[in-house]
Design brief:
The protein is of the alpha+beta class and 207 residues long. The protein has one domain: CofE-like (60s Ribosomal Protein L30, Chain: A), CATH 3.30.1330. It is built from four helices and ten strands. The chain has a four-stranded antiparallel beta sheet with strand order 4-3-2-10, with helices on one face. Strands 1-5 form a two-stranded antiparallel sheet. It is globular and about 55 Å long.
């Protein structure tokens, strides 16, 4: 797995690098204070295409190009190297939440386990059948791991979580509509917010 680090001195215009690394983007003037360029990348709404300059020693750190494949490769390596049968891997990054100050961890990619725990068609506390409830296991664990690893000078690049409830180890992830981890735009309840702004195509355009 090659690290994607670029010396800052080799980048003439960071904004152009952000746009090249994004699938879609909003110009900086659309953001209060013009602090970031908002981008869509790998099914996530993120500032600056996830490019980070902190803890980077005068470099820009970019996301892996094949992030899901990278997670699977890491999972296979850990299983083989340490003779582990049941193991999941999550590649994380920091992520901001609308109307909340501070950052939390989010999963860029996962491997070895089902990222969703399905409560549908099971009873709630009062016996009513749950119709849409699913727990986002991947991002829940990512938030926990990033809290443990820290954001400053902790120098803890990896966290091991054990005895996790509601986790099912598997290599087969559902792509059936309504069951897939990634929500198509046409089905996403947040689609109205997405459609009301003028997105531009980035260098990794997929939509």
């Amino acid at each position: 797995m090659a690290r994607r680090c670029i010396p800052q001195e080799s980048v003439e215009d960071k904004d152009e690098l952000i746009k090249q690394e994004s699938e879609q983007y909003l110009e900086r003037e659309n953001v209060p204070g013009e602090y970031v360029i908002f981008t869509l990348k790998q099914n996530l709404l993120v500032p600056s295409a996830g490019i980070d300059a902190s803890n980077a020693s005068e470099h820009y750190i970019l996301w892996p190009e094949r992030v899901m494949e990278t997670a699977r490769e890491l999972c296979a390596w850990f299983k083989k190297t340490y003779s582990i049968k049941e193991l999941g891997v999550i590649i994380t990054d920091s992520h901001s939440t609308p109307f909340r100050r501070g950052i939390v961890g989010i999963g860029l990619a996962w491997a070895g386990f089902d990222p969703l725990y399905d409560y549908r068609q099971t009873p709630d506390l009062f016996g009513r059948t749950l119709l849409i409830s699913q727990t986002n296991v991947a991002d829940s664990l990512a938030a926990t791991a990033v809290l443990a690893m820290g954001e400053g000078d902790e120098q803890t690049p990896l966290a091991a979580l054990r005895d996790i409830p509601r986790i099912f180890f598997t290599e087969n992830y559902s792509s059936v509509p309504g069951n897939s981890f990634v929500v198509p735009l046409a089905e996403d309840i947040y689609a109205p917010f997405y459609s009301k702004v003028s997105w531009k195509k980035g260098g990794q355009y997929q939509r």
